[in-house]
Amino acid sequence: MTESTANTLWARSLVDELARAGLREVVIAPGSRSTPLVMACAADERLRVRVHLDERACGFFALGVGKATGRPAAIITTSGTAVANLFPAVVEASQSGVPLIVLSADRPNRLRGADANQAIDQYQIFGRYPRAFFQLSEPIIDSRSLRHLRSIAGRVWDKSCGSSKGPVHVNVPFDKPLEPQDSAHDLVVEDPLAFEGRADGSPMVRIESTRPAITEEQLGQLLKCLAGRIGVIVAGPSEEASLLGPAVRHFASVTGFPLLADPLSGARFGVGDDRVIVGYDLFLSDARVREHLTPEVVVRVGASPTSASLQRWLFQHADAEQLVIDDGPRWKDHGVTATTYFRADAVDALTRMSSKWPTHRKELSEEPFRSWARADRAAREALSPISEGELGEGAVAGATLRALPHGAALVVSSSMPVRDLDAFAALRMEH
Q1: Quick one: pLDDT at residue 16?
Q2: Which of the 8 DSSP states describes residue 71?
Q3: Which CATH number describes the domain made up of 3-196?
Q4: Which residues pair with 173 in a beta bridge?
């Protein structure tokens, strides 16, 4: 068998098994060494293939696909410094818990450390940021090796979008010639399962990943902590905003607790805003207000909030019981204010607590909620004239939000834009 045939079969088997697992989006940064992978993707009708000339832009585009869909896009790059340009997107995916798959083509082993062009050390080039790293061998075309390759593809998919979502790096070496030149029909007939995958289109290995659901003991502990106490809910940014948002809003509605919802939490905007406090970034900047709004217990879900004022309030009331519910790989308590950290799926925990919450307890939250509501109204009134003045950050944030139809997706960059959105999002509520 020629080298080109081996490359073709190897790449096709890897791509086919990823598509069987659920891959639908591929983003390619063009280059020579990745030719077998590119051709395998181009020939697969299940895949939507896009091309970006710049690797850095390619990485962030794929990151956006993962954020929008909750499923990883696969990035394909050639070897060498092209791979290094993906580092920012890989770090962002790791820190944010966004699924992403990097398929980096590489030189064969004989060309590494031998002064070959575009041959760098790609082994674990992204360090500790990927959820997993797989160094493939150079193509070995026999039944056992191809079955093993298909099994790896299933693990790649599971590691990227399983219980701990994030980036996965697969390094794939190819030797020249890279373009297909002949057929491997006889080998396919010899072992169709290894060469063609399962006939019904299912993956070679079905990997069932489950997230840690909250136990009955933990659920009882949470409900006991909240019973008869002045509570506040803080919902931080979440990569599962479409799931977390409705769950935390419903929990706030059931309990009567005020909900301080970050604009990236999925709970800030929507139908039924009766418990959502939107002007907290402004009124919590006043130390006297922070002192007055004293909680007995705080339920925290999602990442750390964007608002510095809200973070100061959490720290100022570190003596209150603060319950963090999160099952992600990153520790969500950089302020060291948590009293109990529940390793559990927040959506599951909130949903089950809502179903068990006694109806009469909501009345106990009415008076504390009114204090938050008065501060929120004052903040809205203070912010309202900004929307009618000169065009500035606040006016732009408010106008943008008002123009969005229900269910629209808004892409917000980091640094000041997301802070402006947090600070001035109350402007939408006034119109």
Answers
A1: 97
A2: S
A3: 3.40.50.970
A4: 106
